[in-house]
């Protein structure tokens, strides 16, 4: 059993080590929005498409097939919907308020991104 431990540790070290995410705006909304790796802000009634890439701090990158999920803590304020592309999501401002978007990579909770939905522009 003790002979297998070094092998198990070696295999565990042969994968990506989570080091945050990179978020880029994919769509061009009709009004200004703020989308970054650290926070989101958009008006109610607006949907934006984002591309999300998990980052690794070692030489192993994440594969497209590696699990990635974003979930809103409050879907009454902000909805986060997946698309056919596993790295692309739609953010939908539902109603003014604040919430948090949970980030999950490889089935591990990686924290949340604060999100603010503002009142729609008149």
Overview of this protein structure:
This protein is mainly β and 122 residues long. The protein has a single domain, classed as Immunoglobulin-like. The strands form two sheets. Strands 2-3-9-8-5 form a five-stranded mixed beta sheet, with no helix packed on it. The longest helix has 9 residues. The radius of gyration is 17 Å and the shape is elongated. About 4% of the residues have low confidence.
Overall geometric form: elongated
Poorly predicted runs are 7-11
What distance separates the N and C termini? 68 Å
Estimated structural class: mainly beta
Strand content: over 45%
**Mean residue pLDDT:** 90
Please tally the β strands and state the result: 9
Enumerate the strands of the largest sheet in spatial order, edge to edge or round the barrel.
2-3-9-8-5
Q: What pattern of helices and strands is seen along the backbone?
A: HEEEEEEEEE
The percent of residues in helical segments reads under 10%
Q: Major sheet, described briefly?
A: 5 strands, mixed
* Alpha carbon gyration radius: 17 Å
Number of domains: 1
CATH topology: Immunoglobulin-like
Number of helices: 1
CATH classification, class level: Mainly Beta
CATH-scheme architecture: Sandwich
